[in-house]
Amino acid sequence: MKILLATILTVALVVIGICIFKTYKEKHRLAKIVRNILLTGLLIVLFNLVSLLTRFEPVCLVAYSAYFVASDWLLYFLLQFSLEYIGNDFEKHVKKKYMCLLLLADSANILLNNVFEHLYTLKHVSLFGGESYYELVVYWPFAVHYFIILMVAAFCLISLFYGALKAPVFYRKKYMTIAVIMVVLIVLYFITFKSAIDVSVIGYVIEGICIYYCAFVYTPQRLLQKTLFQVTQDMSVALFVMDIEGKNLYSNKYAEELFDTESPLVNKEGITLEQWCRDAYMNQEEEFTKQQTFYRGDEELILKIQLQRMVDAHKQLQGGYFVVQDRTEEIIALRKERYLATHDSLTGLYNKQRFYEKCEKYINRHADKELLMICTDIKEFKMINDFLGTKTGDLVLQNIAIMLKEQVTKAIYYGRLGNDVFSILMAKEDFSEALFAKEEQGAYFSGMTRDVSFPIINYIGVYEITERTLPVSVMCDRARMAIAKIKGDYHKRISYYDNVMRDTILHEQELISDLNTAISDGQLKMYLQPQTSVSGELLGAEALVRWIHPEKGFIMPGDFIPVFEKNGLISDVDRYIWEVACKQLRKWKEEGREDLYISVNISPRDFYFLNIYQIFTELVEKYDIAPQNIKLEITETAIVMDFKRQMELISRLRRTGFVVEMDDFGSGYSSLNMLKDIHVDVLKIDMAFLKKAEDEERSKKILQMIISLSKELGMPVITEGVENAEQAKFLSEMGCEMFQGYYFAKPMTVEEFENRYLR
């Protein structure tokens, strides 16, 4: 029997030793406490084994003393474990400092028993067929040790049961397990510790192993499983795990939806998603991430499928798992985003930037191929939007895109550059004017609108790409310049860019590049054309601009003003002349000639680029001149372009004291209705009004009516372009009192003006 008991205790020592060794690998803060429990348990088993096997009574007595001391501290470490492990508020009732002192005293008292034998002694007994054992005989002072053991055990049990009752269900089971085993251990201890064979020792082993298992094995694994289950079930990706043979071990809820057998996902080959994954798992050695398209009926799903393989320390396959993410919306949105980044959303053609990029690459790759850049432009497209609505305008643009793709089939690239401007790159050998003929286009606009029939005239500009180093944008500009040459011509539809246009462009670019220098160096000069009475009496003058270039000499206004009006630089010229005019008025004021005025022109472009009111109020304040001495000439074209806004500006200028003239009346959109609505101070009529008329007498009558009506409305009339005495006479007879023209004086320098009229 002794051999059997010794074998059991030896196995227990090995098991506890293994657990102690494993605690050194744990990083948890409980590892040290659990190790102390296991070490004291190891001592208990060891000394119990010594007491079982020894034949010497003194050795057995020492072994029993060490056994009792280890029991004290095992219970203390159990209490420490229960307080730390459960983490409840019972700890405030435990005074560990005093408990340690009490246990130290008890340990010392037990060790003294080896000398005085005042607590217990040994008695020799024979058991199991005459085998020799030592049995414990205790004296009444040993009750102190009983009391201490019971007190510490009670604290341990209370702490464990208290924590178990307050803990969640998941933790309650393990707390109760440890507590129940401890109860059994304490009962066995008090029943059998005096006997020759102490069964409670096995309880110490079981308690230690249970504590190790609950602290480091059961709780982390079960908690990890529950956590992973909850997390993976609510994931927005499908997750399923396979063993080494490809069997499905686990699938989250989303994976089960994807693997639905009633309406399975299949690819174009008819293979289900589940089968595809299994085949890939069994046949693919490496991990991968792939994008695959599957279908459920007419529904398309774009899936990102990722395979991860799990291997052990020896690189042996243990299993694997798939992560499947539905990227359908993301991919479709990305495709749409990429499409919109390179295509026009209305017509589906390349947008401007993408068209330029594609053409540039093609032109560079085909250096020997003769190519054309073609642009189209719809005549009066703004009127289509204004009169028929933007929906009809959009329909026109869509039809043009359809026409280009269906009729001009040999084009290399199509693009919409903006508004109603389309562009095409095509080989010269494939170009034919018939492709763009009106007859070919008509069918695409016949059903444009049910209520209104509007003629669509599409102008075509062609640039033969001879300078391949030019940016594609410049090539398109040249094709559009060709259109500008025929715009307004009802007979011509196609125009070609040529050297004359190129020379014109170069000339315009030179003028543009020279403008800043011309202003800073004073090359732009203010000329004055007198405005007089019919008798030649000076009333004031109109400021005109002339350019005296140091190399090109005298540049006429007709050469540079239209260029600057086209690109908006006219505003720089106008501001310069306004400043010079105000400076001149200041000089005349100092000379006592405040009766003179200067009229300055305001280009239609100025209203978009400049704050007219602010500029002129600042100028009159800067040069301390009267607002009525600087007259502002505004063309009727500028007024009509934004009628309400210009009327508000004119009213504001007049309230400040400026004199506002309506320039070129009769050359644009003049009407009696305009005279009724426009409140200006002076009406300026161009004599070209008569020259354009086939029936001059009839025009004179209309002119007479306008002059009479304007006088009735309190608007004096000044007529410009008067070239002879006959014109001056009949205009005077009609009631016109102010004149301007070559008959009275040509435009002249300020010095000539002053010498002639002021000195």
Topology:
Blueprint: H1 2-23, H2 31-53, H3 57-86, H4 96-116, E1 120-127, E2 131-138, H5 142-166, H6 169-192, H7 200-233, E3 238-243, E4 248-251, H8 253-258, H9 273-283, E5 288-296, E6 299-311, E7 317-326, H10 328-342, H11 352-365, E8 371-378, H12 381-388, H13 390-407, E9 413-418, E10 421-427, H14 438-442, E11 458-464, H15 472-486, E12 494-496, H16 499-520, E13 524-532, E14 538-549, E15 553-555, H17 557-567, H18 570-590, E16 597-602, H19 606-609, H20 612-623, E17 630-635, H21 636-641, H22 643-656, E18 660-665, H23 672-677, E19 682-686, H24 688-691, H25 696-712, E20 717-720, H26 725-734, E21 738-740, E22 748-749, H27 750-757
Parallel strand pairs: 11-12, 14-16, 16-17, 17-18, 18-19, 19-20, 20-21
Antiparallel strand pairs: 1-2, 3-4, 3-7, 5-6, 6-7, 8-10, 8-11, 9-10, 13-14, 13-22, 14-15
Helix pairs in contact: 1-2, 1-7, 2-3, 2-7, 3-4, 3-5, 4-5, 5-6, 6-7, 12-13, 18-20
What are the salient characteristics of this protein?
elongated; 5-stranded antiparallel β-sheet; 759 residues; Beta-Lactamase; alpha/beta; 10-stranded mixed β-sheet; Rhopdopsin 7-helix transmembrane proteins; 4 domains; 19% strand; Alpha-Beta Plaits
Would you write up a description of this structure?
By secondary structure, this protein is α/β, with parallel strands linked by helices. The chain has four domains: 2-227, Rhodopsin 7-helix transmembrane proteins (Rhopdopsin 7-helix transmembrane proteins, Up-down Bundle); 235-333, PAS domain (Beta-Lactamase, 2-Layer Sandwich); 343-497, Alpha-Beta Plaits (2-Layer Sandwich), CATH 3.30.70; 519-757, EAL domain (TIM Barrel). β18, α23 (672-677) and β19 form a beta-alpha-beta unit.
